[in-house]
Amino acid sequence: MKQFLKTTALTLGLLSSPIAFANLSINVGAINVNPDSGSSALNEIPTAGVSVDSNTQLGLTFDYALNDNWVIELVAATPFSHDIKGTGAIKGAGVGSTKHLPPSLFGQYHFGAANAKFRPFIGAGVNYTIFFDEKAGKDLKAVLETEDVKLKLDNSFGLAAQIGANYMIDDQWGIHAMASFIDIDTDAKVIANGQTALTTDVAIDPFVFMLGAKFKF
To answer: What φ, ψ does residue 37 adopt, rounded to 5°?
Structure first.
């Protein structure tokens, strides 16, 4: 975690320097997080689990070209919101909701010449997902027979892989498209009346898709 924050801070510092500005491009568009979510069974209910729905937000990525082929990309977005539903014995039950920010840092290799209009790329990197504003659902409160229910999801650190392409319309403007897979695993805990009532390990592991406009400085 400390290394990830240091790397992110270094990247932002590089992007803020006058020399780096010429190598900087920004991509803005729609970004979708589509969880391939599963979970271990709830420890207290072996035949039940949870799943997480998809969400689309405003995506913002910063690309810094180290040379003609290698690029560092920082992926950010407005907070994603997800409903958490029950599966198995509690299929469809409203377990709760959460918001999260999943900043990711990628190293990318771009194919072709630096001045080519169409350039596909591949990338690999790390992700740190911050969960916040967790809320217990009404169905969960009904099952536990209390309004004093809290939902807690631990933050997640994991690896990420990426493919995509840029198509330049002119020297500054273009189209940016990418797809990523991110390893997001979190420990979920339900606390009722101050005591742990339910626990589960949730493998969200989303596919992330972005389509937007690219601007080169």
So the answer is: -85, 140
Residues 43, 118: Cα–Cα separation, whole Å: 50
Q: Is 40's pLDDT higher than 70?
A: no
Q: Write down the mean pLDDT value for the chain.
A: 87
Assign residue 43 a region: left if phi > 0, alpha if psi is -120 to 50, beta otherwise?
A: alpha
Task: Specify the DSSP class assigned to residue 115.
Answer: T
Phi and psi angles of residue 16, each rounded to the nearest 5 degrees, phi first? -85, -10
Contact at 8 Å (CB) between 208 and 32? yes
Global pTM reads 0.81
DSSP, collapsed to helix, strand or coil, labels residue 16 as helix
What pLDDT, on a 0 to 100 scale, did the predictor assign at position 52? 85
Q: Give the CA distances from residue 107 to residues 11, 75, 199, in Å, rounded to whole numbers and listed in that order.
A: 11, 11, 35
Alpha carbon distance 37, 39 (integer Å): 7
Residue range 165-174, pLDDT digits in tens: 999 999 999 9
Spatial neighbors of 18 by CB under 8 A, at least 6 apart, are none
27, 29, 33, 34 alpha-carbon torsion, rounded to 10°:
-120
Which pLDDT belongs to residue 11?
58
Q: Is the pLDDT of residue 10 over 60?
A: no
